[in-house]
Amino acid sequence: MATMNDFSLPIRLLLKSYRWRRIDPVPWAPLRRPLAESRFALVSSAGFILPGQERFKVNLAGGDGSFREIPSDTDVSLLTDAHRSESFDHEGMVRDPNLAFPIDRVRELAAAGRIGEVNHRHLSFMGSITAPGRLVRDHAPEAARLLRGDGVDVALLVPV
Amino acid sequence: MCNQTVSLIAAELERQGISTVILLLLHEVGEAVRPPRALWVPFPHGYPLGRPDDPPRQLAVLEAALRLLETAAGPPALEDYEPMV
């Protein structure tokens, strides 16, 4: 089980005085159609990139809120861990990227008919965003517009 | 911070009409930030779907997230994952 005590002392001190960004009001988009007929996309904050993609900016104050597009037919062995955080154990997701970006599992769910189509692309962010102003103002709306334009009905989001 | 990041992205997706569910590793962050739908999973940081190279367990977590999507009545919906032993 993950707890705040897992973090290093400097991070714990930061979190002690950190003001979390409260979502208020909480928006709600009801399921429009059964899952078996819904188009599905993944959004992960595990910081994965593909060969040739621009790396996340690890020294950007407050964090880098940009995202990379990951085609849904990607071979997960090609995903590279580019997450800057030293606050979690990277070993598991390096060994099996499905642990934090379950592309293969989502394909299996679609093949089994549990969900409808898999969108042709998923989105990869890098967490560690301590100042989420630009994420909220620019990057998240851009991501939402992109997925909405693809006709995505449902998204699963995975932190690390 | 990852928990807050995906919560904020989820909120924007919902504002634009996309239904979301997030996996949540830190319960207290979910309570403070209030993502629309969150399944709290009892796994370590870096292991949101449980274990590497364990497709059945990974699918079980995803199935619980899908069920939350189908059953949650209104926001915020924060549910605990209870693995079948």
What does this structure look like?
The complex is a heterodimer of chains A (160) and B (85). Chain A is α/β, with parallel strands linked by helices. Chain A has one domain (30-158). Chain A is built from four helices and six strands; from the N terminus they run αββββααβαβ. Chain A has helices spanning 9-17, 91-95, 103-111, 133-149, and strands spanning 40-44, 48-49, 67-71, 80-81, 121-125, 154-158. In chain A, the strands form two sheets. In chain A, strands 3-5-1-6 form a four-stranded mixed sheet, covered by helices on one side. In chain A, strands 2-4 form a two-stranded antiparallel sheet. The longest helix of chain A is centred in the C-terminal third of the chain and has 17 residues, at 133-149. The mean pLDDT of chain A is 95. Chain B has 85 residues and is of the alpha/beta class. Chain B has one domain (2-80). Chain B is built from three helices and three strands. Chain B has helices at residues 2-15, 27-33, 55-71, and strands at 19-24, 37-40, 77-80. In chain B, strands 1-2-3 form a three-stranded parallel sheet, sandwiched between helices. In chain B, α2 links the parallel β1 and β2. The radius of gyration of chain B is 12 Å and the shape is globular. At the A-B interface, α2, α3, α4 and β6 of A face α1, β1, α2 and α3 of B.
Please give a handful of descriptors for the protein shown:
heterodimer, A: alpha/beta, four-stranded mixed β-sheet, 4 helices, 6 strands, 25% helix, 15% strand, globular, B: alpha/beta, 45% helix
Instruction: Please state the CA-atom Rg of chain B, rounded to the nearest Å.
Output: 12 Å
Nearest-integer average pLDDT of chain A: 95
The N- to C-terminal Cα distance of chain B equals 30 Å
Overall pLDDT confidence of chain B: 95
Along the chain, the helix and strand elements of chain A come as HEEEEHHEHE
